[in-house]
Every structure is written in C-alpha cells, then in structure tokens.
C-alpha cells in the first residue's frame, strides 16, 4: 500500500489528523466543505449550516482543551469565545503546514472501498465540478453535529419552530416573545440563558433529570478542579461530585428542577454558571416533558398548558455520514458505536474515525492522540488487536461509567480514562506521553511529536 491519506473535514479533529500525517511524511489531502478551518466553531449566520451561535464560549477550560503541542495564548480567558477559538485553529493549521493541504469549498459526496486496499472519494470541487480520487487511507473527521434530531409529539405546532442547529442568536424578532426550549443539555441551557435576556420568561422542557455543574469551582475552572481527583476510584469521584454540587447549589427542588437519582458522570453533565441564577431570578422556568401541542399551545405531562411564540429544540443529532452508503457504515440510532478506541473499524483496516467520541471534557487533544495512533499503524509501528471483534465487544461492555441507555451516550467517554487508554496504546508503539505539567506557561513543547 502507498501512504496517500484523505481527511474529510477541517474542523479541530481534521486539522490535527492532517498535522500528524504531515509530521510523519504521509501524503495527505483534506477536503473541507466550507472556506475556513474550525468546523462548527466558524460562526455562520446562515441557517442550515452547523455552527456555533453568536455568543458561544467554550464549556471546557483552555487548560484541558488546547492541543498539547500548541498551547492557547496566555491572553485567552479560561473559557475562550468562538472568535478566539477559530483564530486559534487557523493559527494551529498555519503553524503545522495544514492549510497548504486543505481543499476548501470541496464537499465529499461519496466514499467507498475500491480495489484491494483503497478508498474512492468523490467530491464536488470549488467550481462545482464532480471529481473522484483514490486514496490508500481514509480519516473521517467531519464531526457528529450535522444532522439534527427533531422531536415529535401528537398534534401540530404552528408557531416559529427551529432546532438548535439553526440557532444563531437572539434578534429583535424574539423580543418579548414567549419562548420554549426543549432539552436540558449544554446547548439548551445556553440558548435559554441567551433568550431570557430579550424575551419574556423562557420555559425549558426536560424529559429527565440532569446534573448541572458550574463552570468555576472554588475559583478554578471546573475541569481543572476535577482533574485533581482523577486518580480516585470512580465511585468516590462520583459521590464527591454529588456532595460538592449539593453544597454549592442546594437541593434542585428549590429551583423547580427534578432531583437526579443517578450519580454524576453516569449521564453527560451540563455546564452552565448562569442557569441556576436565571431560574431563581424568574427568567427561566423549568418544565416537564411535552405531552402534545396544537396551534401555539403546548401541553406538558403535568397537565400544564401554555402558548409559545417560538420553540427551539436542542434535542441532539444523529450520528450519520452522508458520504457513506448505509450498507457500508451506519451508526444512526445505535446506542453504542462499534469502533476500537472509538476510531478503528473491525472490517476496514484503512479507515479511521478521528474525534467520533463525546468526552466528559474536550475532544480535541484526544483526537490528536487518535490521529497519532492512526499514523503509527500506517507506518507499521502499531499493531491493532488480532481479534478486533472481541476487543470492541470488551470495550463496549466495560464503559467508563454506567452511562444511561439511548443514543445520547453512544460515544460517551471519561476524558482522563480515555486519555490513559490512548496513552497505553501509543506506548505499545514506543511513544511515551507523560503527564503534562498543568499550569506551566511553557508546557507541551514538542509534547506530541512522534520520533
């Protein structure tokens, strides 16, 4: 086999995949459907384009989000804005020579195995012409926030309805309107807080109890504080978090929120420092799940009925890849993704998924590890398990926490546990990644290079 690599997507995972390919002498081309690197972090006011909204900030701290060989500037706040992050990704891509390998405004429409060990990739180029090229390896890095999941209820809602995928910010059309946000994840809470600044009371409907964590704990970013206890047994970590959250916030019943009977980290936590204050100030009102809707009227499971001018559904995304035939790759609706280390397919040895996981933390530095591992295998320095089915089954049956059922947790991992697992795989190939000296301004110099 040759060493020609195709990377689909120039978001954070795609640019780190390309960087690792370049560092290892692989012939890499990146196809990006937009005109900038950064993926969803490139703000675009057009609906139908998956991007951050106007006032988006990172929900994991820069300390545990930055690429380990390219620290964020010291001038960045603990939680950078989307503008700062897009500039960071642009700088990263320029520094490592990735920009020269990216074909912007190129949309991949089909990818399929060809010959004994190749991939045929068909794309629409920036002049609208359909073309096909053949590669030896394929790295899929287009993310999993592309195809929205829309909720359905009996009846028909006739007001303004949108998915968080199309939410770009609150404008004058929202002012003094009655707004309902469906969901209780990070996007739902951010949108609820944002909308409540311009509208009347925002109602937030949730199907199940959630854990809501503040962004700062004792003056430190939440993930920096939590990292200090990563060595503890997981149950002790969970009970410690439960006690800490209760001490900081008090019982959820005081906020009109349902009490969560599961332990923290068994479900993906929601990080928002404003939500609880806005609830107690009467700007946001929690509501149970929706029973039905008709016209502008929504009926909730507790029998409450209320009219809403605008409904925004922050109800997640399907894990889909529009360029794959579903008979080849189909993860839509799966409650677990059958990939070794969330990246290697059992049957297709020259196919890698980079960044297809949802950590309790940030994807980017661990996507760098995955890309590093992929390059090591391409170079013959890493050997995947001989019995891939058994290895994948073992991984699926030994999840990091007792994640709840459903597609929402199909890709869930614990950041530090997954980081340790990937470090172990890399060590087998002779790459020994140490513990980064968190807090040191000059950390990570040459931290992720492969010799």
From TrEMBL:
<dbReference type="InterPro" id="IPR020946">
    <property type="entry name" value="Flavin_mOase-like"/>
</dbReference>
<dbReference type="InterPro" id="IPR050346">
    <property type="entry name" value="FMO-like"/>
</dbReference>
<dbReference type="GO" id="GO:0004499">
    <property type="term" value="F:N,N-dimethylaniline monooxygenase activity"/>
</dbReference>
<dbReference type="GO" id="GO:0050660">
    <property type="term" value="F:flavin adenine dinucleotide binding"/>
</dbReference>
<keyword id="KW-0285">Flavoprotein</keyword>
<keyword id="KW-0560">Oxidoreductase</keyword>
<protein>
    <submittedName>
        <fullName>Monooxygenase</fullName>
    </submittedName>
</protein>
<dbReference type="Pfam" id="PF00743">
    <property type="entry name" value="FMO-like"/>
</dbReference>
<dbReference type="InterPro" id="IPR000960">
    <property type="entry name" value="Flavin_mOase"/>
</dbReference>
<keyword id="KW-0274">FAD</keyword>
<keyword id="KW-0521">NADP</keyword>
<comment type="similarity">
    <text>Belongs to the FMO family.</text>
</comment>
<dbReference type="InterPro" id="IPR036188">
    <property type="entry name" value="FAD/NAD-bd_sf"/>
</dbReference>
<keyword id="KW-0503">Monooxygenase</keyword>
<comment type="similarity">
    <text>Belongs to the FAD-binding monooxygenase family.</text>
</comment>
<dbReference type="GO" id="GO:0050661">
    <property type="term" value="F:NADP binding"/>
</dbReference>
């Amino acid at each position: 086999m040759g060493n020609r690599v195709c990377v689909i997507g120039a978001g954070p995972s795609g640019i780190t995949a390309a960087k690792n390919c370049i560092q290892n002498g692989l012939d890499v081309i990146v196809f990006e459907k937009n005109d900038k690197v950064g993926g969803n972090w490139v703000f675009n006011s057009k609906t139908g384009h998956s991007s951050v909204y106007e006032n988006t900030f990172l929900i994991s701290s820069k300390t545990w989000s930055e690429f380990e060989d390219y620290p964020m500037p010291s001038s960045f706040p603990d939680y950078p804005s989307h503008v700062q992050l897009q500039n960071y990704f642009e700088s990263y891509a320029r520094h490592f020579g990735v920009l020269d390998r990216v074909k912007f405004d190129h949309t991949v429409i089909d990818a399929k195995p060809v010959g004994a060990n190749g991939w045929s990739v068909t794309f629409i180029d920036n002049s609208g012409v359909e073309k096909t090229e053949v590669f030896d390896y394929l790295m899929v890095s287009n993310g999993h926030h592309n195809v929205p999941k829309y909720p359905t209820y009996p009846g028909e809602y006739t007001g303004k309805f949108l998915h968080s995928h199309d939410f770009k910010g609150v404008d004058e059309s929202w002012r003094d309107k009655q707004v309902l946000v469906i969901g209780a994840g990070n996007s739902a809470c951010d949108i609820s807080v944002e909308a409540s600044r311009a509208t009347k009371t925002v109602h937030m409907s949730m199907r199940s109890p959630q854990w809501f964590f503040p962004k700062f704990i004792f003056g430190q970013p939440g993930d920096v504080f939590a990292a200090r206890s990563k060595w503890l047994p997981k149950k002790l970590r969970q009970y410690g978090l439960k006690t800490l959250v209760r001490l900081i916030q008090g019982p959820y019943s005081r906020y009109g929120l349902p009490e969560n009977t599961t332990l923290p980290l068994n479900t993906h936590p929601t990080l928002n420092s404003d939500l609880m204050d806005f609830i107690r100030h009467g700007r946001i009102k929690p509501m149970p799940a929706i029973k039905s809707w008709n016209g502008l009227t929504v009926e909730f499971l507790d029998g409450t009925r209320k009219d809403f001018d605008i409904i925004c559904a922050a109800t997640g995304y399907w894990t889909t890849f529009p360029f794959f035939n579903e008979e080849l790759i189909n993860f839509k609706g799966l409650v677990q993704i059958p990939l070794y280390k969330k990246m290697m397919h059992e049957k297709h040895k020259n196919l890698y998924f980079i960044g297809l996981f949802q950590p309790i933390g940030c994807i980017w530095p661990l996507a760098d590890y995955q890309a590093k591992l992929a390059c090591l295998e391409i170079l013959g320095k890493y050997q995947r398990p001989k019995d891939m089915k058994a290895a994948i089954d073992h991984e699926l049956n030994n999840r990091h926490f007792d994640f709840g059922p459903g597609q929402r947790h199909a890709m869930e991992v614990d950041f530090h546990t997954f980081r340790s697992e990937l470090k172990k795989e890399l060590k087998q190939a002779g790459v020994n990644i140490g513990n980064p000296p968190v807090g040191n301004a000059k950390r990570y110099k040459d931290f992720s290079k492969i010799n």
